[in-house]
Design a protein that fits this description.
phosphatidylglycerol-prolipoprotein diacylglyceryl transferase activity; single chain; lipoprotein; membrane; two-stranded antiparallel ribbon; globular; 2 strands; 9 helices
């Protein structure tokens, strides 16, 4: 068994203001996406202009925060919302959903695609490799914050999280998700987009890849205490939410290679 590293979830205190590592990982993920987007814009055939990158990151950040919060409320917290409606506004108590954040980013991308006259599929393909490193950093934030830890385990690298009331050795599932949904997904999508692909292909691969990798990681993650296991007595809410992503990814890849529409460079 490995000892959990004693990392203070609060990175910096400025009087009454506490800056948590989790929030800093969000900023770092957005900074990386900004850097990579500008780099990709400089390549021949880019569908997005470099001077538009700031707008893309700004609206994506809004989509992540609003969509992530609304998604958590709808997917994980409807019972609590009904009993305590004001809880929805108490964001400092935590509660963000990747699937909700994804929908928020898609809404932001749709808005930008219409205002900049860029095909939605082209812009989603452009955004696909920008996201996984931010997901990886977010999972590191979960690990430092001692949240979303894994199921009880006997593996040599199991850890006892200090805030676990049961004090059981557990899978460090946040690190599994860091490696799967973050690093592995980034390597896969980034490699895939090094060559010209038909419209919707990269977006389809991202959806399929994330859905499959998250579905796998959920087998090691402790289900939400207020939800427990859902379908079939073993499937978690996160796995249920990944099924539409897997199906959508398969459909988009099929559509992309059936129609073979070429991305249109924005002039």
């Amino acid at each position: 068994m490995l000892a959990y590293p004693a990392i203070d979830p609060v990175a910096l205190e400025l009087g009454p203001l506490k800056i948590h590592w989790y929030g800093l990982t969000y900023l770092a993920g957005l900074a990386f996406a900004w850097w990579l987007a500008r780099r990709e814009c400089r390549k021949a055939g880019s569908v997005w202009r470099e001077e538009w990158v700031d707008d893309l990151i700004f609206y994506a950040a809004i989509g992540i925060v609003l969509g992530g919060r609304l998604g958590y409320i709808l997917f994980y917290g409807t019972d609590r919302l009904l009993s305590d409606p004001a809880w929805a506004l108490r964001v400092w108590e935590g509660g963000m959903s990747f699937h909700g954040g994804l929908l928020g980013v898609i809404a932001a991308v749709y808005y930008l695609s219409t205002t900049r006259k860029v095909a939605l599929g082209d812009l989603l393909d452009f955004v696909a490799p920008l996201a996984p490193i931010g997901l990886a950093l977010g999972r590191l934030g979960n690990f430092i914050g001692q949240e979303l830890w894994g199921r009880a385990a006997t593996v040599p690298w199991a850890m006892v999280f200090p805030n676990d009331p049961m004090q059981l050795p557990r899978h460090p599932s946040q690190l599994y998700q860091f490696g799967l949904e973050g690093v592995t997904l980034f390597a896969l999508v980034y490699w895939f987009t090094r060559q010209r692909r038909p419209r919707w292909a990269a977006a389809g691969l991202f959806s399929l890849g994330y859905g499959c990798l998250r579905f796998l990681a959920e087998f090691f993650r402790e289900p939400d205490a207020h939800l427990g296991f859902q379908a079939f007595g073993w499937m978690t809410r996160g796995q249920i939410l990944c099924i539409p992503m897997i199906l959508l990814g398969l459909y988009l890849l099929w559509w992309a290679y059936s129609h073979k529409a070429s991305p249109k460079k924005h002039g």
